[in-house]
Amino acid sequence: MLPLIPRPAELARRSGFFALHNGVRVVAGPGAGRAADLLTSVVGSGHGPEIRLDLRPGLGPEEYELDVAEDRVTLVATREAGLFHGVQTLRQLGADQWPCLRIRDRPKLAWRGVLLDVARHFMPLEFLYEFTDLIALHKYNVLHLHLTDDQGWRLEIEGRPKLTEIGAWRSESMVGAAGSTLFDGVPHGGFYTRAELRGLVAHAAARGVRVVPEIDLPGHVRAALAAYPELGNHPDRPLPVWTEWGISPDILGMHDEALDFCRDVLTQTAGIFPSRHLHVGGDECPTTQWETAPAARDRARALGLDGTAGLHSWFLGELHGFLGELGRQAVCWDETGHSPGTLPSGMTVASWRDAGHGAQAVARGHQVIMAPHTSTYFDYPQTDGPGEPPRELVTTLADVHAYDPLAGNLPVADPDNGGRPGVVGTQAQLWTEHAPTPDHVRQLAFPRLCALAESAWSPGPRDYAGFQARLAGHLDLLRALNALPKERVRFPGAVPVPRKPRT
């Protein structure tokens, strides 16, 4: 069995092999140059048999056809994205020789993403490059960067230097789950320049991955308020960058200065990231401070709202409209399935609490990214043994593989055609409260990212036994790529956790 992950839609084996050890010639037709460059970086360049990449009409947006014979290889797609996927299939077939075969392959869902939280723990830029390569290998096409939160601001913004001078650094970090009284006493921080992020965007694009930034608003902004207290509801109270996990009660004020800040940051963020989608957070926003803030009360009164809590939906609507003016599509977290009218109908929602909420959002006319925490939060323990992250719910490899983003026959939608409601895709979440280093991220990510790749890409029913058989060989490739930590790492505050029943 070939160790291909995700499983191709159609594969037919033939006898014989295409040898790589004597050198090959990678030939690119018009428009195939970047995919050919990516393949050349893997197989090298020589004067042996030919590998030809061509763009031809007739296939789907990410579909490709791959034909491996003993004397030549042809890879054909209608769009560059299909060629990139075909190159990743070739990478997985081996380093010395490829079995003769014919593959016709296409994804089940258009949005196949991985969120990496660099706000709770800053990750080195070189690791972001490496991680992008790894998700592309598994045919993910979205890297969702969670760039801002209570514990850190990681994005350089012109004209607002304190965001990175102050907001990017905290004095220490909590050890253990939210509510712990233990702290490590170690300062932590870092940020990315605009040039560094543009370089990452270009690197990702040359592998068929788009980088979707997230600026979390109007909650999860303690780091921004530490830099600029005047943006909050108590401008006279200096705040440090938050050192705890969980949800800070400090949120943006609803005055013009705070709204101008949001517009400025989103405009500059859109100037760095060309992705059509831009995530504005919107989750876990305690609105208590607005109840006594004069600006928030005046705003609610002027808008005719029953109370200040309604400002949350109004605020997200303002961001949605503003991003629309910039030619971008706003994405927000959806916690409840929401009531009709509480979110703009055109807003894309990422449903994280419950898959049922995602189904409700589809029914109310939204395009939805399915991200239920029970199946896609990879900061959760993988086993109920010791040394795992201090989280209660265990999400095993089998749990992830069994997950179906379209359960209940939900309709599929195209994220690049904003309009028709449905599921545009799914994504994994790698929150980093308890993952301070790249090795912690690697251990959390794999092999569960392999399982979710199948849920997002491969058609038909799940075959866990077949997946495990393919994974055994695929893990050898991941080890060769240093995608797995060389030895098992222990997570800060790790404790044995009893497994909770899944519902």
Structural overview:
This protein is an alpha/beta fold and 503 residues long. The protein is 32% helix and 20% strand. The protein has 16 helices and 20 strands. The protein has helices at 33-43, 80-93, 125-137, 162-165, 194-205, 222-227, 256-272, 288-292, 294-303, 311-325, 355-363, 373-376, 397-402, 438-445, 448-457, 464-480; strands at 10-19, 25-28, 50-55, 64-68, 72-77, 97-105, 111-117, 142-146, 148-149, 152-153, 169-170, 174-175, 182-183, 188-189, 210-217, 277-281, 329-334, 348-351, 367-370, 422-430. The strands form 5 sheets. The protein has an 8-stranded parallel β-barrel, surrounded by 6 helices. It is globular.
**Could you please say which CATH topology of the largest domain applies here?**
TIM Barrel
In helices, the fraction of residues equals 25-40%
| CATH superfamily grouping of the largest domain | Glycosidases
User: Which regions contain 5 or more consecutive residues with pLDDT less than 50?
Assistant: none
Number of domains: 2
Distance between the termini: 34 Å
Domain Beta-hexosaminidase bacterial type N-terminal: 3-105
Protein name: beta-N-acetylhexosaminidase
EC number: 3.2.1.52
Organism: Amycolatopsis heterodermiae
